[in-house]
């Protein structure tokens, strides 16, 4: 008589995905990269993404865990008693920097040719697909990477030819001994989201530089060589018009240290590997960037680029969490079955995968809008201007829940710091706060509608996606209602979050449906239907749940090696 195999016991009963290739574990990512990137670039990047997927699921994940448990330490003096501040990072963090800034040139590849052997600057979609994989291992370092990239972009757009010539080569270097990392010093104790309340002052000097005085309260990548800083011009106008944008070097051109101090480092919930600090500006030398009366508008370009990066990182966190949950569900046994065979578990997994896939589609859609906007297409900027706060608002909030739900799939082990789950949950809470809290970013959706006329452009974009797909018939009527709600929110701001969520869900559903036809992937169309059913259209909460759509089954495939 045949005896059924006994279920695993002891350590063998605990699935461990260490060493999984996160590129191979996610077959839709390869197909989406080919859809959104030109063929030659997609083919060129594939071996690099293959390698990064293996690193992210193995070595980088282990380095991230070590760096998370050994946060940076501020040193105020040398051992001889010299006042020479420095921040000590664990070697694991330095190795992560080498991969991100050095090997993959993530802060440089949008700005110059030659990164990863490509003969031109790469479009945003390429940068974000690499970031999407890297962040599945390490989140904290992606903040300095994003700020360096964003500072470079802002300097190139608004800085003088002299400043660009002086600093661009180091900002885009892949040699860590040459590289100048970037930062953004904006927040003050009384001026977080309310930038008009900025009190740090800037006084003009005879040599054309400015002298900065005051304190900045939350400065991530605190020892960056260059920072964009908002300060109020001495005797300037009240409010935002008196606030200007300045480039602050840590080391002056003559090699001497600039006149500011890192007062202390923050003890943070997440992103522990990366140094965030409080900074006292004590007559620090800085250079004015762009129009003195448009400081915040110019800084907003950097902020919006960082917001998009936040949405990308949230998408990556959700995918890593979902991959871990799927891996466990296919290997963990309980009550005589694998978890993946249990209806409640399948439903829970699909509820995690839906927002993860929404965020990924919105990542690619926004990246394409950024590419088109930078190319000068007239309708692309207002589209980019609304898609950016939409993904930052909704994806960052969804990541908090998805990472928490994935921790629950792992059970008690998920609550233990030896696994990735706790780190993912802690890091996921950052996105809803930095570069604008959820309320501020939702209001920015409405601001884009008011100032840029973004709603008609968004409608035309979504309608175009639907016309080139098998999108559900209910989508466009629902979109028109969402747009009406967003228009009403311009007078009744209490509706702002509801309107922003609806616009995000409907845009992502249209993108999923468009991708489904282009890729011949029915499961993405089924996802579009699920978004409408579960996140947009009215439904009796006490009615029976819809049966699992069999077309969603490919999403539940085992992500592990065959």
Can you walk through the features of this model?
The protein has helices at 27-36, 39-57, 59-69, 91-103, 124-134, 142-158, 161-171, 295-331, 343-374, 380-410, 421-428, 438-452, 454-467, 475-489, 496-519, 522-535; strands at residues 73-77, 83-88, 182-185, 201-204, 210-220, 226-233, 243-249, 260-265, 276-288, 333-334, 337-338. It is of the alpha+beta class and 562 residues long. A five-stranded mixed beta barrel has the order 4-5-9-7-6. A two-stranded antiparallel sheet has the order 1-2. A two-stranded antiparallel sheet has the order 10-11. β1 and β2 form a beta hairpin. α5 packs across α8 (295-331), α6 packs antiparallel against α7 (161-171) and α10 crosses α15 (496-519). The longest helix is centred in the middle third of the chain and has 37 residues, at 295-331. The protein is globular, with a radius of gyration of 24 Å. The mean pLDDT is 95.
Largest sheet: 5 strands, mixed, barrel
The coarse silhouette is globular
The low-confidence parts are: none
In total, the number of strands is: 11
What value does the Rg take, in angstroms? 24 Å
How far apart the termini lie comes to 30 Å
Beta strand % = 5-15%
Mean pLDDT: 95
List descriptors.
alpha+beta; two-stranded antiparallel sheet; five-stranded mixed beta barrel; 16 helices; 11 strands; 562 residues
In short:
The protein contains 16 helices and 11 strands.
What is the topology?
Elements: H1 27-36, H2 39-57, H3 59-69, E1 73-77, E2 83-88, H4 91-103, H5 124-134, H6 142-158, H7 161-171, E3 182-185, E4 201-204, E5 210-220, E6 226-233, E7 243-249, E8 260-265, E9 276-288, H8 295-331, E10 333-334, E11 337-338, H9 343-374, H10 380-410, H11 421-428, H12 438-452, H13 454-467, H14 475-489, H15 496-519, H16 522-535
Parallel strand pairs: 3-6, 4-6
Antiparallel strand pairs: 1-2, 4-5, 5-9, 6-7, 7-9, 8-9, 10-11
């Amino acid at each position: 008589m045949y005896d059924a195999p006994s279920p695993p016991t002891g350590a063998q009963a605990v699935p461990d995905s260490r060493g999984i290739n996160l590129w191979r574990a996610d077959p839709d990512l390869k197909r989406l990269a080919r859809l959104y990137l030109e063929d030659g670039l997609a083919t060129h990047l594939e071996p690099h993404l293959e390698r990064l997927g293996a690193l992210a699921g193995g070595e980088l994940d282990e380095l991230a865990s070590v760096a998370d448990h050994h946060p940076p330490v501020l040193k105020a003096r040398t051992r001889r008693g010299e006042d020479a501040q420095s921040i000590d990072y664990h070697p694991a963090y330095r190795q992560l920097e080498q991969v991100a800034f050095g090997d993959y040139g993530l802060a440089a590849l949008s700005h110059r040719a030659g990164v990863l052997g490509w003969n031109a600057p790469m479009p945003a979609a390429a940068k974000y697909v690499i970031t999407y994989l890297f962040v599945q291992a390490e989140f904290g370092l992606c903040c300095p990477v994003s700020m360096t990239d964003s500072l470079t972009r802002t300097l190139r757009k608004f800085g003088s030819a002299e400043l660009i010539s002086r600093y661009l080569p180091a900002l885009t270097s892949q040699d860590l001994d040459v590289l100048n990392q970037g930062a953004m010093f904006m927040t003050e104790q009384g001026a977080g989201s309310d930038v008009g309340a900025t009190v740090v002052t800037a006084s003009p000097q005879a040599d054309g530089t400015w002298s900065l005085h005051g304190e900045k309260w939350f400065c991530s990548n605190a020892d960056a060589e260059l920072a964009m800083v908002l300060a109020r011009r001495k005797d300037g106008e009240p409010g935002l018009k008196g606030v200007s944008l300045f480039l602050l070097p840590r080391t002056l051109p003559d090699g001497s240290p600039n006149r500011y101090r890192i007062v202390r480092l923050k003890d943070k919930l997440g992103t522990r590997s990366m140094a965030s600090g409080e900074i006292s500006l004590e007559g620090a030398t800085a250079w004015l960037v762009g129009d003195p009366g448009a400081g915040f508008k110019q800084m907003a370009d950097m902020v919006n680029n960082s917001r998009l990066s936040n949405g990308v990182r949230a998408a990556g966190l959700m995918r890593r969490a979902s991959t871990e949950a799927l891996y466990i569900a296919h290997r963990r046994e309980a009550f005589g079955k694998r978890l993946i065979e249990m209806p409640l578990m399948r439903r829970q997994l699909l509820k995690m995968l839906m927002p993860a896939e929404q965020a990924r589609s919105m990542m690619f859609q926004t990246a394409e809008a950024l590419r088109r906007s930078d190319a000068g297409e007239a309708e692309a900027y207002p589209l980019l201007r609304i898609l950016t706060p939409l993904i930052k608002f909704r994806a960052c909030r969804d990541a908090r829940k998805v990472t928490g739900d994935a921790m629950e799939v792992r059970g008690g082990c998920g609550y233990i710091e030896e696994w990735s789950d706790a780190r993912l949950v802690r890091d996921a809470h950052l996105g809803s706060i930095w570069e604008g809290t959820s309320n501020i970013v939702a209001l920015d959706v409405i601001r884009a509608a008011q100032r840029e006329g973004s709603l008609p452009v968004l409608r035309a974009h979504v309608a175009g996606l639907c016309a080139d797909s098998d999108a559900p018939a209910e989508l466009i009527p629902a979109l028109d209602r969402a747009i009406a709600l967003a228009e009403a929110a311009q007078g009744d701001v209490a509706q702002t979050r509801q309107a922003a969520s609806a616009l995000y869900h409907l845009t992502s559903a249209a993108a999923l449906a468009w991708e489904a036809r282009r890729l011949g992937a029915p499961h993405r169309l089924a996802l579009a239907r699920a978004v409408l059913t579960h996140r947009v259209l009215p439904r009796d909460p006490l009615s029976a749940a819809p049966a699992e759509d069999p077309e969603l089954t490919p999403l539940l495939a085992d992500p592990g090696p065959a």
